[in-house]
Amino acid sequence: MSEKMRALVVTRPGGPEVLEVRDVARPRLRDEHDVIVQVKAAGINPADWQNRKNGAVYDLEGDSTILGIDGVGIVVEVGREVTNVRLGDEVWYVDGGYAGNPGSYAEYKVVRGDYVAFKPAGMSFAEAAALPVVGLTAWEAVFDKGQVSSGDHVLVHGGAGGLGHIAIQYLASIGAKIATTVSTETKAELVRTLGAELVINYRTQNIEEALEQWKGEPGADVVFDFVGHDNFARSFAHTAAYGTLVNTVVSEWPAEGNGPAEWKNLDISFVNIGLPQISRNHGHRLRQSAILKKIAELADRGRLKPHIDRVVSFDGVSEAQRALEAGETLGRPVLVL
Question: What confidence score (pLDDT) does residue 257 get?
Fold first, then answer.
C-alpha cells in the first residue's frame, strides 16, 4: 500500500484560494486503540472555512493543515485493542480538522476506534457525510440544552441551513410548534416540507411581530440561534419571558450585557461540539459517539434525512466553502473522494 495519499490542505490563512491538493504522508495507527478509515465522503462545515480563514491549527509536514471535522468511510486497519468495529465496516465520526488532529479532506483518516460509530445502513456515503456534525450539534441543542416538549413554541434561526434543517426534523418528531427564519422563498419551501409552521423572511418581516401574531404573546418558548454573531444579541428579543435561548455559533453579547436576559428571566445555553477534542476529554468523546449511534438509528427508521446542497470533489471545495460562508447553501455541502 502506498505511503502517500491525496489530501486537500491549507498552507496559509486566507480565503478559499489557499486550499491546495497535495500528496502527503498516509496516516498510521498511533496505538492499539486506533483504526484507519478510508474516507469516502466528508461534510463541508462552517468550522472548516473558519479554521481556514483564521489560520492553520496544526502542522502536517511542517507547513499545512488538513481540514474536515467529520467523515464517513470504510475501516481498513484496526488496532489490536479495538473491539467495536472490524475491517470493512462502514463508519462515521466527528474527529479532527483542528486541535492538533488532521481532518477528513483526505483519502485516509486515523481515528480512535471507540470514537467511530456505524453509519446509517440505508444511506450512501454522500448522504451520511451531511449528518455527523449537524446531527450531533442539533441533537445537543434540541434535546440536551433546549429541553423542548410537545406543544412548545420554538423559533429556529437559519432553518434552511445545515443545523437548522436537522433541528426542525428533531423538533417535528416531538410535536413542537416550529417557527423559523429564512432569507429566500426557496429556503422557505424547504423548511415547510420539514415541518415548519411559521416561516419568517427576516429580510422583509419583523420577527418579533410575526412571533407574537403566531403565538398570541411575545417571543418563542425556546429559540435556537444557529446563525450567531450579532444575531445572538437580537435573539434575546425573540425569546419569551422565562424562555430558553440556545446558541451554537461564536457570537456577540448584547450591548446591555446581562440586562436583557435578567429582565426576562431567560435561560441561556451554548453548544460547542469541538470542546471534547480540544480538551481531549475521553468521556465526552464517548458521549458524542453514543449520540451518533442514536442519529444513525433515526436515519435508518426514516425519521431523519439530510438535505445535500451539493456534492463536490476536491476541486469544488473552495466554491462550496465560499457559498457556505455567504449563507447561500441549502442544507449541507459534501465532499466525495
Answer: 79
